[in-house]
Sequence to fold (318 residues):
Amino acid sequence: MTKPKTESDTATLHDATVLVTGGAGFIGSHIADALVDENDVRILDNLSNGSRSNLPDDATLIEGDIRDPVAVRTAMQDVDVVFHQAALISVPESIERPQASQQTNAVATLELLEAARREDARLVLASSVAIYGTPETMPVSESAPKDPQSPYGVDKLTADLYARLYHDLHGVETVVLRYFNVYGPRQSGGAYSGVIDTFLEQAIAGQPITVHGDGDQTRDFVHVDDVVHANLAAATTDHVGRAFNIGTGESITIRELAALVQDTTDSASEIVHTEGRAGDVQRSRAELTRARTELGYEPSNSLEAALEALVPGLVEAD
Fold:
């Protein structure tokens, strides 16, 4: 592969043909925003969860399904780098619809890897903390045992392994980013929304803030801007065929998060507890040494400040 021009201090692509799968969605649209001024950016999205309003004006939308080999081949033609963000992201939905989860998260990734092999393109894959299951020790390093507790986790682990296998067998430049709990602007509401978005919407609407289980579960919440920076670094790093945790290295209990949202929104909403969810992991916190040393990744957004920044936009939408 002939690498596009880069600036090592910013780890930003220039003059490249870039594909972002799921680019009308939450994380993908932020990646597209960061790249569109200096690159030819294509978006492959079926708009089932994403929105046209998230798309940068200068990006090219290819409306199609990641599970459609014809759509993938069309979108991948002459691409230098693909950021693979398209996925069925819900753990509960994967339990209800395991075949759909496998087709979207695992089988479609294999098709994309074959296309990257043909095009001699680099592939940056969105993997997940869900591949670890219930960690034996904290924080969780990339070498920790893999014991996914849901079809979603199994499918993400399959895609994760395939990406690194394609590097080892075929020389495809792959970089796997194992996201912890991502939050930020454009995270959509609804039954399977991220917990921060859900808590904020409930608090602003004066509804009960619903915590699944006892709320002692811990999560490592990472802002979407930090995730974008990790993707840009992955697009230019020499450390290919590797997997990296992308989080903050810090954690908070879900009960503490609910109280923080309550305080940030100055809400009178009551915090209520509901039944725990199947497949929920109790403890989660990222070990970031590898990402820091090999990607130059350093999270810079504090949870408290980011929550305060999110509130005005949600109040206006409400």
